[in-house]
Design a protein that fits this description.
By secondary structure, the chain is α+β, with helices and mostly antiparallel strands. The protein is about 60% helix and about 15% strand. A 5-stranded antiparallel β-sheet has the order 2-3-1-4-5. A hairpin with a 2-residue loop joins strand 4 and strand 5. Helix 1 crosses helix 3 and helix 4 packs across helix 5. The longest helix has about 35 residues. The N and C termini lie far apart (about 95 Å).
Length: about 170
């Protein structure tokens, strides 16, 4: 039987992870079996630079924290699990993990949680292939500039036509 001190430490870990789950926009659960320390360090750094957390957590801790956060369906995870938590963006954590998994056959996406709802591996991969927020902003700005330019040309043509008629 674990001591009260150990039980309290476990409860703290569950509560801390539950709070992270509650704040998360996107959670990606992965199987990291086979990753070496150097690659793990690079992956963690890349994820942190994007504003995400990367944690290796026991499946039972994940299950308790998910339940406490109101997320159903994470109580039957198998194998070693790493949790990627994205707070700012839906696409960034999925993209980083998906890109890593493409280059490393052993690294697998188990499933995801988006806004508290489970999403299958295929959905996480679809999300990963969407443009980033910055790319979408650039595309929008480009489209708006094109429309403004076209409007200026049309207005100039109207002005010239009016001057001709006057």
């Amino acid at each position: 039987m674990p001591s009260e001190k150990i039980l309290n430490q476990k409860k703290e870990k569950v509560a801390e992870l539950s709070e992270k789950f509650k704040k998360a926009k996107m959670i990606v659960l992965t199987e990291y079996r086979g990753i070496n320390v150097e690659d793990d360090t690079k992956l963690r750094r890349t994820l942190r630079e994007e504003g995400n957390d990367y944690l290796v957590v026991k499946n039972s801790t994940i299950a308790y924290a998910a339940k406490e956060a109101g997320i159903e369906g994470l109580d039957n995870l198998e194998g070693p699990t790493a949790v990627v938590i994205g707070y700012e963006d839906y696409v960034a954590p999925a993209k980083v993990i998906n890109d890593y998994a493409k280059d490393h056959d052993f690294y697998k996406i188990k499933l995801g949680v988006m806004d508290g709802k489970l999403v299958e591996e295929a959905e996480v991969k679809k999300l990963a292939n969407l443009p980033t927020k910055e790319t979408l902003y650039a595309m929008l700005a480009s489209a708006l500039l094109g429309n403004i330019r076209n409007l200026a040309v049309v207005l100039n043509q109207v002005k010239e036509k009016q001057e001709e008629n006057a």
